[in-house]
Amino acid sequence: MSSVRSGVESVVEDLGAGRGPSWLDAWLEDNAHQVVAWRRHIHAHPELSRAEHRTTAFLSDRLSRAGLNPRLLPVGTGLICDIGPETAKRTVALRADIDALPLTEATGLPYSSTVDGVAHACGHDAHTTILLGAATALANAPELPGRVRLIFQPAEEVMPGGALDVLNAGGLEGVDSIFGLHCDPRLPVGRIGTRVGPITSASDLIELRLTSPGGHTSRPHLTADLVHALGTVITGLPTLLSRRIDPRTGTVLAWGAVHAGEAPNAIPQDGVLSGTLRTGDRNTWAELEPLIHELVHSLLAPLGVGFDLQHRRGVPPVVNDEESTEVMRAGIASALGEQALTATPQSSGGEDFGWYLEHVPGSFARLGVHSSEVRPKDLHQPTFELDERALLVGVRAMVGIALQALKS
Asked: Which of 62, 224, 353, 407 could pair covalently with 304 via S-S, beta carbons 3.0-4.6 A apart?
């Protein structure tokens, strides 16, 4: 996937070499090894959501060296940086997320995470590097047909997401459209998947706490059987939900944890059930919270247990605007060729990029990172790896998208 130069710097094949513009070809020829080095540095020094201080400082330093003026977000991490004239008629935003996951890396790479229990297992190190590369390349462009806003966003991995921090800081003021990429290990390197309409799903957290007087398992009729009540909700709520929601919305409730009791002959006094609720439909997302409360109440009312339901709203689905998606496709094709384009299905995963699209039109795409040399390693897993050629593909794509959007 890569070769070594001077024992330190890595050189990767530029799959879009020669497609221009010429200034971008020249910049990548001179700086491809630096792009890889940036990614490996970020990968080795991951930071959790809203604690991305070293990453923010690293980015600020590199952007400043390129002659740019990054602005720190009020929350203390993350950056906004503009390129191009303030009087430009159009402004396009490009976004990357900079936080890592609370996972222990198990790739065995020489640049593996140096932070215990934290790893870039979702490709955010690649997203960040790609935007940094695109920013530095654009800063070297002879001229730009408008203004490009770079958003290095913190806290994508926590709900309701750091996109709200960017919005609260005025990050989309004056922006006409916004674009982003996300690594996809199901797509081969060199391909980028686009889609009109929803590409991700809304994602909420559900936590249900039950209470009971407790008692002896020999006399369940004298108390409220809390474990039985938990089981009723575990099996009953997804079933009832499937009969109250249009199945075409892709609404899925899945439990992730249940805790109750210690002794096999004692009915416990409390228990907790938690999981995620996802839907691919924006209107359905708005209706789910009251419906879940109604269904939980109907399931537990005959059983005599008390309950407290916490429905934590997460992120809306990412719904790609048709016109913006066509702009994105044209930009990718100009940067990498038509063969780089492919379709992609809607995912049930959540992504806080959806908050941006509540304010301005835009589009979000999937960047192929799978190498034919190894089996695909899935996102959010300790073994996730990517083909580093995808970094240069991403830089070319982001530059091409920005230029196309500014011309449109």
From this structure: 224
Q: Are strands 341-343 and 147-153 parallel, antiparallel or unpaired?
A: unpaired
Task: Report CA-CA distances (Å) from 27 to 117, 138, 140, 205.
Answer: 36, 9, 8, 44
Collect contacts of 69-72 with beta carbons under 8 A, ≥24 apart.
70/150, 70/152
Whether residue 208 contacts residue 309, with contact meaning beta carbons closer than 8 Å, is answered with yes
| Cα separation values, 354 from 22, 62, 246, 315, Å | 34, 28, 22, 7
How far is 136 from 25, CA to CA, in rounded Å? Answer: 13
**Rg value, the chain, Cα:** 24
Task: Check: CB of residue 128 under 8 Å from CB of residue 96.
Answer: yes
| Dihedral sign computed on CA atoms, order 329, 333, 338, 340 | negative
Average pLDDT, whole number, for the chain? 95
Q: What is the pLDDT of residue 20?
A: 80
pTM flag (> 0.70)? yes
* DSSP string for 172-210: TTT--EEEEEEEEEEEETT-EEE-SEE-S-EEEEEEEEE
- pLDDT for res 133: 98
Mean pLDDT of 377-386: 95
Local structure of 74: helix, strand or coil = coil
Q: What is the chain's length?
A: 408
Q: DSSP assignment, residue 379? A: T
Structure tokens at 336: 């990498």
| C-alpha 313, offset from chain centre | 16
Question: What pLDDT digit, counting tens, does each position of 299-354 carry?
Answer: 999 999 999 999 999 999 999 999 999 999 999 999 999 999 999 999 999 999 99
93: helix, strand or coil: strand
Question: Which helix (H) or strand (E) covers residue 267, if one does?
Answer: strand 266-267
How far is residue 275's CA from residue 287's CA, in Å, rounded to a whole number? Answer: 18
Q: Which one, of 369, 357, 9, lies nearest residue 189 by Cα?
A: 369
| Predicted confidence band of residue 2 (pLDDT cuts 50, 70, 90) | very low
pLDDT at 272: 98
User: What's residue 252's pLDDT?
Assistant: 95
